[in-house]
Write a structure and sequence with these properties.
Number of strands: 11
Radius of gyration: 21 Å
Distance between the termini: 68 Å
Bound molecules: S-adenosyl-L-homocysteine
Largest sheet: 7 strands, mixed
Helix content: 25-40%
Number of helices: 7
Order of helices and strands: HHHEEHEHEHEEEHEEEE
C-alpha cells in the first residue's frame, strides 16, 4: 500500500512517482490572485456561513453574497482580505463596505415590497464606489440605478462591472443628494454615505410602501443605520445600530 506523502513534502523524502496535486488552499496561497480566483467559491461559502451566523437570514441575500466575487472589486494587493469582514480602501479616500454591512442593508431593503418572484423593483444606490454592492443588488432587484459623485470611482466601477455583463445595472455620474428623478419612483433607496439629513429628494422619489436604508448622523455625533418607510400618510424612521460610513458630499468631482 503506497502512503501519500505528508504535506509539504520534506526535502529529504523520496520524490513521489507522480506529481502530487497541492491542496487548494496551499495552491491559492502560492498563486496569489489566481489562487483565490480558483478557490473563491469555497472562500465565499465560508463568508456566507459567517453572515448567516451573524443573523442574515434572507436566502436571496445569502445567494447574492455567494455569487458576487468581491475579490474582483478590490486592488490586487488586498485580494487576500477580500472575504474578511472588513471594509477596504478603493481609492480617492473611499472604502468598500464590509460584507456584513452590505448584507444587512440589502436584507433591510428587501423587507419592503417585492414582486411575486421575491424581487425588488427599481432600486437607487447612492455611492457606487467600486461597484461591488451594485453587483449584489443586481441579483435581488429588477433594475439598479447607481450614482457616484467621483469620476475616478465611477470609471473604476464601470471597468469592474463590465466583465459581469449585468444589463440591469445603470451607472450614473452625478450628485446623488438629488436622487435620480428619471428612475423614480423607487422600490428602494440605499446609501453608502451618510450626512446629517436624509435628502428630501430621496423621500420624494421613493414609492409608497418602499424603504430608504442609509447611514445618518445622529445628535450624539455618531452615525446610525436608519430605515425610512414611506406610508400613504407619513415617513416612518427606525434607528438601528451604529455604523461608520464615509460622508455624503454634494457636487461632483
Ligand atoms: N457601495 C460602494 C461603497 C462606496 S463608499 C461599494 O460597494 O464600493 C461610498 C461612496 O459614496 C463613495 O464612493 C463616495 O464618493 C460616494 N458619495 C458620497 N456622497 C455622494 C453623493 N452625494 N452622490 C453620489 N455618491 C456619493
Amino acid at each position: 500500500m503506497s502512503r501519500r506523502p505528508g504535506f509539504p513534502v520534506r526535502l529529504d523524502s523520496p520524490a513521489p512517482a507522480r506529481p502530487v496535486p497541492a491542496p487548494a488552499a496551499f495552491a491559492g496561497a502560492r498563486a496569489g490572485i489566481v489562487g483565490i480566483g480558483l478557490d473563491s467559491h469555497a472562500v465565499r461559502a465560508r463568508m456566507v456561513e459567517r453572515l448567516a451566523g451573524q443573523g442574515i437570514a434572507d436566502a436571496r441575500v445569502l445567494a447574492a453574497m455567494q455569487a458576487v466575487e468581491r475579490h474582483r472589486f478590490v486592488d490586487s494587493a488586498l485580494v487576500n482580505q477580500a472575504y474578511e469582514d472588513t471594509s477596504l480602501p478603493i481609492g480617492l479616500g473611499q472604502t468598500i463596505s464590509k460584507p456584513s454591512v452590505v448584507a444587512r442593508m440589502i436584507e433591510l431593503l428587501l423587507g419592503a415590497q417585492v414582486d411575486a418572484a421575491g424581487r425588488l423593483g427599481r432600486v437607487l444606490e447612492v455611492g457606487t464606489g467600486c461597484g461591488y454592492q451594485a453587483a449584489v443588488l443586481a441579483r435581488v432587484a429588477t433594475e439598479v440605478y447607481s450614482i457616484e459623485r467621483l469620476r475616478g470611482l465611477h470609471d473604476k466601477a464601470r471597468a469592474n462591472l463590465r466583465p459581469l455583463r449585468l444589463p440591469n445595472v445603470h451607472l450614473l455620474l452625478g450628485d446623488g443628494m438629488a436622487g435620480y428623478e428619471k428612475g423614480a419612483p423607487y422600490a428602494g433607496i440605499i446609501a453608502a454615505a451618510g450626512g446629517q439629513d436624509v435628502p428630501d429628494a430621496w423621500m420624494e422619489q421613493l414609492a409608497v410602501g418602499a424603504r430608504i436604508v442609509a447611514p445618518r448622523l445622529m445628535a450624539d455625533g455618531q452615525q446610525a443605520l436608519v430605515v425610512i418607510e414611506k406610508t400613504p400618510r407619513e415617513m416612518k424612521q427606525t434607528v438601528l445600530e451604529t455604523v461608520r460610513f464615509v460622508p455624503l458630499k454634494s457636487g461632483i468631482a
